[in-house]
Design brief:
The protein is mostly helical and about 300 residues long. It contains twelve helices and two strands, in the order H-H-H-H-E-E-H-H-H-H-H-H-H-H. Strands 1-2 form a two-stranded antiparallel ribbon. Helix 3 packs antiparallel against helix 8. The protein is globular and about 60 Å long. The termini are far apart. About 45% of the residues are buried.
Length: about 300
């Protein structure tokens, strides 16, 4: 039971990271219709900037600010320099252009920081653990990541559902042409949404930097799972991104934690380990296939 609760918390922490990435991506895709493969590069930018500043200054909070600023500026440069020229182009052009951006960001990061991973020390206030249950200490920093993710989810809910900007975002996700016809500065809306998505991706990178090794290409590893979250949750739906992110984070973590050991009860150890790891690696894609069989547009797809 202790191990189960610990893995559930690990899954929740991974799930909120996926949500931070998927929330911005689903808004960008839902409103702009742009497939941005380079969204994971903004996650990497935030992680590298935060780690470098934290290492140089010994101040995690300064690194957090630096990571958000760097991701926001990178996102604005990406939108003004490349993405806005792709709005009227087909998805193949968008895929090719944003794939090129991945290569540019990765090689630029190598030139600036080198190929060696960066390792960030978490803030001292969160360096310990909290006794959640008897016999279950859990890292304070991971609980902090969960709290930040849930706070962002609440903030996005109020932004999307209770403000004029949110009304325009929801309208844009439903019918972009009608929003433009009503005289809304659609270009300004696009830029604002892209900047918000970049900040969320950067925040995800900052939060992950003390937990994972910050290395070139780290955004490429997580962007596939992020797209799965967007597809399952429904394009244009922040609510869908939250539900799908948490569900997939927990599902993936539980599979990796328990499936190999479970299979060892019915087959030899090496074969069980290999099969368990293989099934766990494709588990979220199997989940996506099952969801799309029942709801082809995702769980909470914006109506269009």
């Amino acid at each position: 039971m202790i191990l189960l609760i610990e893995q559930l918390l690990n899954g929740l922490q991974y799930g909120v990271t996926l949500f931070l990435l998927a929330a911005g991506l689903t808004l960008i895709f839902g409103i702009m219709g742009v497939i941005n493969l380079a969204h994971g590069a903004l996650y990497m930018v935030g992680a590298f900037a935060a780690s470098w500043v934290a290492i140089q200054t010994g101040n995690f909070w300064g690194g957090l600010v630096a990571g958000l600023v760097a991701a926001g500026l990178a996102g604005l440069a990406m939108e003004t320099g490349v993405i806005r020229r792709l709005y009227a182009r087909d998805h193949l052009d968008q895929v090719l252009a944003t794939f090129a951006l991945i290569l540019i960001f990765n090689q630029s990061t190598v030139l600036i920081f080198g190929r060696q991973p960066l390792f960030t020390t978490m803030p001292e206030i969160f360096s310990g653990s909290i006794q959640i249950l008897p016999g279950l200490p859990y890292p304070t920093y991971r609980l902090f990541v969960i709290a930040v993710g849930l706070a962002v989810a609440v903030g996005l809910y109020f932004l999307i559902n209770k403000t004029r900007v949110g009304m325009l975002v929801r309208a844009g996700a439903t019918n972009r042409q009608m929003v433009r016809a009503l005289g809304v500065n659609i270009q300004g809306l696009y830029t604002a949404v892209f900047a918000l998505g970049a900040l969320l991706a950067g925040l995800a990178g900052v939060m992950a930097s003390p937990i994972v090794s910050v290395q070139v290409g780290m955004g490429d590893e997580i962007i596939l799972a992020t797209f799965v979250v967007v597809v399952i949750g429904g394009v244009g739906s922040v609510k869908g991104a939250f539900v799908a992110g948490i569900a997939l984070g927990m599902f993936d973590t539980m599979l990796r934690a328990f499936l190999p050991a479970t299979l060892q009860q019915v087959m030899p150890g090496p074969e069980a380990q290999a099969l368990g790891v293989g099934i766990s690696s494709m588990g979220i894609y199997l989940m996506m296939a099952l969801v799309l069989l029942v709801r082809p547009r995702g769980l909470f797809a914006a109506r269009g």
